[in-house]
Structure formats: structure tokens, C-alpha cells
Amino acid sequence: MNLKNCFRPAVLKMKGYTPGEQPKNLTTIKLNTNENPYPPSAEVLKAVREQADQRLRLYPEPTADTLRQRLSRVYKWPLEGILVGNGSDEILTLLFQATLEKGSLVQYPDITYSLYPVLAQIRDAKVKEVRLEDDWSLDFTKFSTQARLTLWGYPNAPIGNCFDKSKAAVFIRKAKGLVLIDEAYVDFSNENCLDLARKNPHVLVLRTMSKSFSLAGVRLGYVFGHPEVIAQLMKVKDSYNVNRMTQAVGSAALTPGGLAHMRKNIRRIRLDRNSLIEELRNLGFTVPDSQANFILATRRGKPVAESLYKNLKKKRILVRYFPHRRLRDSLRITVGTHAQNNRFLEELRRLL
Ligand SMILES: Cc1ncc(COP(=O)(O)O)c(C=O)c1O
Q1: 244 pLDDT above the threshold of 90
Q2: Of 22, 84, 86, 88, which is best to mutate to test ligand 1, by the most ligand atoms within 8 angstroms of its C-beta?
Q3: How many folded domains does the chain comprise?
Q4: How far apart are CA 53 and CA 42, in angstroms?
Q5: Which domain holds residue 300?
Q6: Is residue 8 in some structural domain?
């Protein structure tokens, strides 16, 4: 028997997603996967403890209604227009599954979240990658108005910039398919695109608790959209796609105390982000302004970015290096605590 005959050719051809490294030890300075360096709120930790009882034998709420009510209140969005998922990654998977079949057109910038191409390959979809301009902006007129699905990040990873919303709005008015704006990092930025989704039923806004809420480990994402669009996605999801602990944690994170904790951490990270950018520019790196909790630092010449990445790793400082043609001279650095950023800069100066 040839096991290869058991799989779809599209799956056999693909390489799969490469996640950032997750070292087991806690002493590594992790500036590689855009996690929040600060712990979650006391409200969240209390909710975890309170959930750890005999109720674990019961299934969770299938559509997470208690949590969706909280989300609805905090974000002023109708409950029927919210879907929660096992991380925003699951919601992306559901969206690709619900909208794309073999040969359907999906489009996104050529440099963006690297999960999109993997999901497109799984569906065997036709992909249009729109090249980011040299200043990392996006020319929305280069997108096809006929695509089944269009995605971009706001802010866009791994650069951290936000695209021009008024130009996005012009494209959205003409687009025939769904448009998903991935706002994984939006809490660190000055603006968001919820208004675009309020005005246009074919626009979805994707959020996550992984970054601003310090909850990457619990896996909780949510999407805001038109109730009719959300109703289609609901049909595709697993019955109990978000576990009991995660639902409780999400609700706790959205209490006044939980939100205040998150906002305090965002203020610290934004301040540290700006000083980190300034320091790296002083060291000769080109660093675009960032609206996220990470920055992209580029520098041509020796030592090359890949060897900086490897040597930092030897010192137990992890940053992200992408072997992409246009990112070969760049490192993506997550903003850590003040002390972690200083330690990174100290080691970097030594290596330069
Ligand atoms: C742009 C973007 N979208 C979505 C995600 C996935 O987030 P989650 O942890 O909610 O699955 C990430 C994670 O790094 C991301 O960078």
C-alpha cells in the first residue's frame, strides 16, 4: 500500500506552516513570536482557578454565548455577528474552508501573516499575491475585485505598519467577495477598522486575545462581521470549538479590571517600542514606524541578519528571521519588557 495515495495532491505538495520556536526553558528572552511579555490579569488567573473543578466533565457552551455577550457589550457589536474560535488561526481556517474550493481566487499582500498561503494551499485555491510597495504600503488598486476572499493585516505583519484606510475603503466598495482585516495587533495601534465592517456586510474584522491580553496560551480569537456571514461560518465550526477554561478566561479578560490591566500593558509596550526603534535606528538599522508590538529592523552588510539571529540565539535571545527574498536583511523583534529590550540591545551592540 502506498500511503501517498491516501492524501489529496494539494496536501502532498505543501510544506506546512513553520511556527516560531517555543523553547521549554523560561530563561530564554523570547522576542520571536509577538507574545506579550507581561502576565495576564489577576481576574484571568482567578477565573482559571475557579474553573478547575468538577464542571470540567461537562461540555462548554457550544457557541460561547456568555463570552459573546461580553464581547458584544465591550465592542458594541451585535452578538449574532460574533464568532469565537480556538485562536484566530482557527477562524482563518474556518473562513478558508467556508469560502474557497479548488481554483477559487484568494488574495493577500506578498508579505503578510505566513499562515494565509498555507491555508490557501490546503484548499487548492488560486492565489494572487500583491507585492507590497518599496515603502511597505499596499496599492489596493492591484487587488482583483473578483476574488472570493481578500485578506490583509491591520497592522500588517511582519512590518507593523497600517495601510491607508481610505484607499482600503475604495477597494472594499468594489470587492465582490469577502474581505477579512486581520487585527491581531490592533490594540497596539492608533486606529482600527471596525467602522469599515459596520458599513460593509462583506467585511470581517479578526481579533485575538493572544497579544494585547497576554493570552496566547489559552487560544482565543474572535471575528466581527455581518450576522449572515457569521451564520455561514458557524455551520463549519466544530460543535465545541472553544473549551470551557478558555471561555471563562475570555470573559474575565473583558471585565473592567481585565481591560484596565490590558490597557496598562499596552501603554508600556508602546513606549518601549518607540525607544527600541530609536535605539536600532541609532545603530544603523532602517526601522519603519510600527503600530504593533513588534518591529522590523533592516540592515545591509556584515554581519548579515541571519548570523545576527543565530548568534543572538546562542545567547538565549530569540528574534524572528524570515528567509524571504525581501526580508533577508531583516530581523523581526517583538517588544519585550524594558529589561529584555535592553539585554537584546546590549548583545546586539556587541555583535555589531
Ligand atoms: C497577523 C496574525 N494573525 C493571526 C495570528 C494568530 O493568532 P492566534 O494566536 O489568535 O491564533 C497571528 C499570530 O501570530 C498573527 O500574527
Answers
A1: yes
A2: 88
A3: 2
A4: 19
A5: 20-36+260-351
A6: no
